[in-house]
Every structure is written in C-alpha cells, then in structure tokens.
Predict the 3D structure of the following.
Amino acid sequence: MKLVKDIMTRDITSVTPDNTMRHFARVLANHRFHGVPVVDIEGKVVGFISDKDLVKSEFPHYDRGNGYFLIRDFAGMAKRLSSVGNQKVEDFMTINPVCVTENDPIIDVVKIILEQGFKVLPVTRDGILVGVVGRAEVCNELLDSGTL
Amino acid sequence: MPGHLNRVRDLERHPGGKGINIAMMLGAMGVETLATGFLGKAPSRFIQERLHKRNITTNFVHIGGVTRHNYFIVDPINDNRTLIDEEGPIITSEELDIFIETYKRLLHRSEIVIIAGSLPRNVQFKFYCKLLSMANEKGIMTILNTVEDNMLECMKFHPYLIMPDLRSADGILGIPVEGAENLYRAACSILKKGTNIAVVTFDGINFLISTPQGCFEASPPEIEIQSRLKTGDGMIAGIVYELSRGGSVRDAIKTGMACATATALNLNGNIYSLEDISKHLDNVSVKEVIY
C-alpha cells in the first residue's frame, strides 16, 4: 500500500497568521500556487489560505455560486491590494484545515479530495508541516504506476 | 578554442552551489535534509524537482531576479577543466526579511545548520553572522563553508565546523595556500579562532582537519581523479552524516574523505547513494599528524 510520503511534494512554502494579505498574494504569484498552509513559528499547521480567500478579501461580495472567477494576474492583484493588503492572513484563512500525515494511505487523500473538493492538503508529522499532497501528485502517481 | 565557433558535444544540467551540493549528497545518504535560500524565476522548478527527487524538503524564498548559471567546461582533448561562475542576482531588503522569517521558523525543526557558499553581491558578511547567532540561540550545531572575507567576523559566533573556500585564494589568515606545513598551520589557526573542527584543503583532494582531539590528515586511495568540483562539499556532507548519527570525530573525517573520494570519481561530482561512499571507507587514509 502506497503512502502519502511516497508521492507528496516536499515543499513547505507557507505563510504565518500575521503575514499580510499582500505578502500572501506575492507568495502565490512567485510560486504559482493556488494556496498555501498557514503555520505558526514552530511550523505547526494552524490554517490554510487559498486564491479563493484572496478573491474574497478583495471582493467581499463575491459569490462562488454565480460561476467561476478567474484570476489571471496574481502579481497585478498583489499591487492592487490597497484596501486589504495590510490586513492579516489570519483574518481570511481557514482555521484547523484538513491535513493528512505522511504515513496515511494515498487512498485517504483521494477520498478527501473527492468528498470535500480540496485541491491540495498539508502533510504533517506531529502537527508540523512536512509537505503537501493534492490532485497533481495523485494524478502523477496514477499516470506513472497505473494504481494507488 | 577562443575566437572560434565551439560546439558543445555533451551537456548535463545539475542544480548546484555549495549548499545545494551538500544537501543533494546528504539526501543521497538518506539524511533528512531541508534546503532553503533564494531562488530566481527561471530555473526554480528544475532545481526544486531535482531536490525533491532526493527526498530533500524545500522552502526557498522566490525572488524577482534570475538565479545564476555556472559552467564547468570539460576539454577532453587538452585534458583540462574550466569553471565559469556568473554573478548572482541582487536580493532586495524585503526578500532578505522574508528569508530571515523563514529561517527562524526552520530552526525549530533543525539539528544542524550548514551555511555554505558565497553571499549575494549586495549582502554583507553580517548576514551570515546573524544566521549563526540565531542558530546559536537555539543551541543548534552550525557549519560554515565560505570565503575568508565572510568567515572572519563569523568566527566570533563559533561555528562547530569551519571550512574556508580557498578555490580562488592565495592565502588564509596570512598563510600561503601551498605546502603541507602551511596546510597544518592554517587548520590550527582556524581552530584557535574558536571552532571545534577546522577543515582545510589546498588541492581539493587532500585535507587537514584540526580538532581539539588532534590534527588529522585525510587522503583518498589511489584513484583516477575525474573532478575536484565538489570534493570539499563531499567532505562536509560525510562529516555531517556521521555527526548526525552520533559518530566520533575520527569516524566523521573518515566518512567525509570517503564521500570526497566518491565525488572525485565522477566528472559531475555527484553521488547517488550511501553505497557510493561506503565502498571507499576501508581505503581512505586518516592519520593523526604532528608537525
């Protein structure tokens, strides 16, 4: 049985609760991510913040039910974040996000992705961020080995 | 050939730089390793993917500038090697601040911190002093591998191991970079400045390691050297591998020499597994010396 640690991406790019939304937008722009874990000073996962949260911060009345909202230029958006740019990540993040551990079976990730619609999940060891796993890693594994 | 069209027959691309080299070697040896630093736009994905393949965790600060390319040109006809180092990008003060915040967080999960390589051209040596000081506050073992100009002030923060980068130096602490006696003097002088292990090499293949337990000369077995590009990085990686397992200093030097030997046998200086190193353990020479 393959485990999360066999396919996870060992990158722990993250933001902290007291980082500004402008900083978060720059992280997304520089790394081309759609979201990152939020960690405390010890690296413990305390939240998750995504591009959707960024949209909601700039357009509070944005309603997902009305259709798709595409952000084509995160860098430009980071510059435009005049109103909420100095507000903190903790005001917009999802608290206590769903995480998996590196020794969980991959199939658990698939269930969470399918049932709860997440694109990416933080991977932890004793609560500390050690990587991320999501649709991309699961798809790559399926393409490479044809099975989970 | 200068002044002519020169076609490249064979090209390999590898992520590099002292810190990356050491991390890649530790990853190959199965040591849980985390790489951080500054990554420019162009090759960031390539570098991170190569590190991830070695099970190395990454947490880089992505910067606006472009990461430099260095070129190692092998001329098999004239049997020489040429290294061309580009100058790296400017790092903004904001990018430096983000790095410090990241580093501070990473210290919580670190047992050994290796600070290696040159500094960005607009960053002063005090930056390394700050990193050492922050690690000291957490009681974390530190290792410093850089040029003398960056090293001198940093010695006040007593890195556990210091290895000066002498590749383009004429001397170290006023001692000329030639001769066995000078090698010994250089290692002892660095040790006296306040470190536990001083590693010095003048030729990239024979090492003098000065410790409070004694001074050791480490040499490879009789081998056909392909490259001295990463032998110093190999020495550090081997020492760190052994220290991380609680090994003795003498064993650490032996493993360091075995690792340096393994890198010397590959033109690209890479090692791919612990077996690449362990097969040299019985053949390297580590002997205590007194001048």
Summary: Chain B touches chain A at residues 34, 48, 51-52, 55-60, 62-63, 98, 101, 104-106, 108-109 (CB under 8 Å). The CA atoms of residues 79 and 226 of chain B lie 10 Å apart. The mean pLDDT of chain B is 93. The two ends of chain B are 45 Å apart (CA to CA).
